[in-house]
Structures are given as structure tokens and as C-alpha cells.
Write a structure and sequence with these properties.
Layout: H1 7-30, E1 33-34, E2 37-38, H2 39-57, H3 62-76, H4 79-91, H5 95-121
Membrane topology: Multi-pass membrane protein
Protein name: Fluoride-specific ion channel FluC 1
Function: Fluoride-specific ion channel. Important for reducing fluoride concentration in the cell, thus reducing its toxicity.
Length: 122
């Protein structure tokens, strides 16, 4: 677990967040859907998973974690964290937790979207 962030760490996170959100918008807005699949979202989630995993598995310094993992990738995609944590469960031999994590994330996120969708239609 990372220690509590100071103002410099928060600046790195905020700067990274600006970069990640800008990249996500740029990529997602320029890619067409492929057979109804939002290719932009799929692309940023896939790339984010790769980059987050590469940085996490390589034990980068805290400043890189704040800027890239939390800042850039946190706003670029949250799926990268989900993918990494789910893979880690499998790697650690926690097979039931691996499948349960996938199930709960997918179902709860879809449920949340459904709740918001129907709440806005009332």
C-alpha cells in the first residue's frame, strides 16, 4: 500500500489524470464501432491493462506509480486495474475469487448502468 500522498504526489496524480483523460477522449472519439463494439473503449482498456501490468510487475518508483498508474491510467481506464487484480487472483491460485471478481464486476457495473438509465427516465 502506498503512503498518504503529499502535495507533490497529488500534483503528479492530477497531471496524469489530465493526460489520461485527454488520451482516452482522443482515441475513443476517433475510432469507429466494429460490429456494435466500441473499439475506442476496447482499445484504451486493452492498452491500459498492458501498461498498468507492465509497470506494476516491474516495481516502478512511487513517483511513476502516482503519475502513470494512478493518474494517467486511472483516468485513461479503470478496466486496467480490474484486469490486473483479477489476473493476480488467478496467479495466486484463488480460482473462486478470480471467477467471483469477474462475475461481480460485470454484473454490478451493468446493474449500476441499468439503475442510472432507468432513474434518469423517471
Amino acid at each position: 500500500m502506498l503512503p498518504a500522498a503529499n502535495i507533490g504526489d497529488l500534483f503528479l496524480i492530477g497531471t496524469g489524470g489530465f493526460i489520461g483523460a485527454s488520451l482516452r477522449y482522443t482515441i475513443s472519439s476517433r475510432m469507429p464501432k466494429i460490429r456494435s463494439i466500441p473499439a475506442g473503449t476496447l482499445t484504451v482498456n486493452f492498452l491500459g491493462s498492458i501498461v498498468l501490468s507492465l509497470l506494476t510487475f516491474s516495481s516502478e518508483p512511487e513517483s511513476v506509480v502516482y503519475l502513470v498508474n494512478i493518474g494517467i491510467l486511472g483516468s485513461f481506464t479503470t478496466f486496467s486495474t480490474f484486469a490486473y487484480e483479477t489476473f493476480k487472483l488467478l496467479e495466486d491460485g484463488q480460482n473462486v475469487s478470480f471467477f467471483l471478481n469477474i462475475f461481480l464486476n460485470v454484473i454490478l457495473c451493468l446493474l449500476g448502468v441499468g439503475i442510472a438509465y432507468f432513474a434518469l427516465r423517471l
